Amino acid sequence: xxxxxxxxxxxxxxxxxxxxxxxxxxxxxxxxxxxxxxxxxxxxxxxxxxxxxxxxxxxxxxxxxxxxxxxxxxxxxxxxxxxxxxxxxxxxxxxxxxxxxxxxx
Length: 105
Description:
By secondary structure, the protein is an all-alpha fold. It has one domain. The protein contains 4 helices and no strands. α2 runs antiparallel to α3 (about 60-90). It is flat.
């Protein structure tokens, strides 16, 4: 029974991660019309920034962790999204399909 619970929890976690990725890809495609294959790279950049703020700078307190989370989620991610929208996705909206796929890879 213990192995069943372990497999159930790990499967639920993996399924949740896949569903969040699918929802993000669907949202980015419906809002821009471009299937963003670099979606994982953008998420990785945000996660790596948070990791670097916590580990490389030696932040140990809960308050500093919350500040790092706030900086990444509320400041960095929207600015990165706006920058990518202006610099990459808006010009690609008028491009052909091959250019759209190649630019996001």
